[in-house]
Amino acid sequence: MTPLGDRVLVRRDRGEAVLPWGFVLPGGEDRALAHEGTVIAVGEGRRKGRRTIPVDAVVGTRVLYSSRIDAREVDGEQFDVVAEGSLIGVRDGDCP
């Protein structure tokens, strides 16, 4: 599956949910303000006139993203489709 536009396909880490200010909610994924996962696929970017502005996320990096997501199942595995604007940051050491 390849996301369209500025969307990113993320495999969410299971278990602990991390809030943006660093607090950890064990097993609290559904009530968390942010999730952490690994980027699996990236869309081509968003259009601005005739230009395409590429997505900053890179496949394989671990990202922190807000809970405004669209959860999908692909080939029996759960993934989150996240708009680039909902990405909060990249894990230290995973920057391209």
Could you outline the blueprint of secondary structure elements for this entry?
Blueprint: E1 7-12, E2 17-18, E3 24-25, E4 34-42, E5 46-48, E6 51-53, E7 62-66, E8 70-74, E9 77-83, E10 87-90
Antiparallel strand pairs: 1-4, 1-9, 2-3, 4-7, 5-6, 7-10, 8-9
Q: Could you walk me through the main structural features you see in this protein, from its secondary elements to its overall organization?
A:
It is a single chain. This protein has 96 residues and is mostly beta strands. The protein has a single domain, classed as GroES chaperonin (10 Kd Chaperonin, Protein Cpn10, Chain O). The protein is 0% helix and 48% strand. The strands form three sheets. Strands 8-9-1-4-7-10 form a six-stranded antiparallel sheet, with no helix packed on it. Strands 2-3 form a two-stranded antiparallel sheet. The chain is globular. The chain starts with 6 loop residues before the first strand and ends in a 6-residue tail after the last strand.
Number of helices: 0
Order of helices and strands: EEEEEEEEEE
What is the fold named in CATH at topology level? 10 Kd Chaperonin, Protein Cpn10, Chain O
Query: Any idea what the CATH superfamily is called?
Result: GroES chaperonin
For the biggest β-sheet, the strand order reads 8-9-1-4-7-10
Reported for the largest beta sheet, the result is: 6 strands, antiparallel
Short description:
This protein is mainly β and about 100 residues long. The chain has one domain: GroES chaperonin (10 Kd Chaperonin, Protein Cpn10, Chain O, Roll).
